[in-house]
Structure formats: structure tokens, C-alpha cells
Write a structure and sequence with these properties.
168 residues; Aminopeptidase; 7-stranded mixed sheet; globular
Length: 168
């Protein structure tokens, strides 16, 4: 019998390449046709292994889905970046590599981030998603998120709507 260990843990410096690979694949899968192509390529290129390595060494809150020493997903989170909104924390990003999607790992990463935030005194959390990203919208609704705000985000010359979900 072959056993595979699946864990969610804090990111380590040697995870930078794996996180960058997940970021690349997940963003292409999620945003192709939503974010204009040139802008999407620029956004992906900015988040290579060096960027993730710096995030890790700077002690950003970042957890990974470790699937037998392969990074299958990640979540980054921290203090809410929109002070006018009455939520203490924010999950900035939560992405799963396409081959690991639909297996419950997104919920596990979300729960791990919420648990860590709660242990640091944050009882309310907000998450933003592009309004055209149907899978993300459905995911946050299934988790019990409440729609609280819509805003616009610029991608090159084009604008896209994004929506915020709150978790209390």
C-alpha cells in the first residue's frame, strides 16, 4: 500500500518555486478570458519564485497545501487592507493548482487561514473575488460568505468588477 501525506503548513523558503508554479497555473486557469491577456501575463510574471521567497522571508502569513512534498495550493492572509470596511482580517489569495481542485482542499486552506487569524485575535474576515470568476464566487458562497461590497479594478485599459464576501 502506498501512503501519501497531505498537510497544510506554513510556507518555507524552499516552497517559493512550488508556490510560483501553483500561482501561474491557477491564475491562468481562473482568469483566462476574464483579465485581458497581456495584463494577466504581466501579473503572473511579477509573482515568480523570487517574489514568493521574499514574502516567506518577510514572514507574510502564507500557508501551503503540501501533497507529498508537492505544493498543491496556497493561501495568503493578514490584516484587512480596506480600513473603511469593518472586518479585521482579509484572505488575500487562496489558490489551488487545477489538478487538485474539487477535492475539498480549498476549504481546508480557507479553514486553516481562518483558524490562524482567529488565534491572532481576528474574528471577522473579508475575501475579494472578481465578479466574473464564477467558481470563486460559488466557492465563497458555499463557505457561507455574505456579499458586502462591489468595487471596480483596473486591468490595463479595462475595468472589472470585484465583490467582497464577509465571514463573521
Amino acid at each position: 500500500m502506498v501512503e501519501t501525506l497531505i498537510t497544510i503548513r506554513n510556507a518555507r523558503e524552499d516552497d517559493a518555486q512550488g508556490i510560483a508554479d501553483v500561482h501561474d497555473a491557477a491564475w491562468r486557469d481562473a482568469y483566462r478570458g476574464i483579465i485581458p491577456g497581456r495584463e494577466l501575463e504581466k501579473m503572473i510574471a511579477r509573482r515568480g519564485p523570487r517574489w514568493w521567497h521574499l514574502a516567506i522571508v518577510r514572514k507574510s502569513r502564507l500557508v501551503v497545501l503540501d501533497f507529498d512534498e508537492t505544493i498543491g495550493g496556497y493561501a495568503s492572509y493578514g490584516r484587512n487592507r480596506v480600513p473603511s470596511m469593518p472586518y479585521g482580517a482579509e484572505i488575500f489569495e487562496l489558490y489551488i493548482a487545477p489538478e487538485f481542485q474539487g477535492l475539498g482542499f480549498g476549504r481546508r486552506l480557507f479553514d486553516a487561514a481562518r483558524r490562524d487569524l482567529g488565534e491572532h485575535g481576528y474574528s471577522t474576515v473579508i475575501v475579494w473575488a472578481l465578479a466574473d470568476n464564477d467558481r470563486a464566487i460559488a466557492f465563497y458562497k458555499r463557505l457561507g460568505g455574505t456579499f458586502v461590497r462591489e468595487a471596480q479594478e483596473r486591468f490595463g485599459a479595462e475595468m472589472r468588477s470585484r465583490v467582497a464576501f464577509a465571514f463573521e
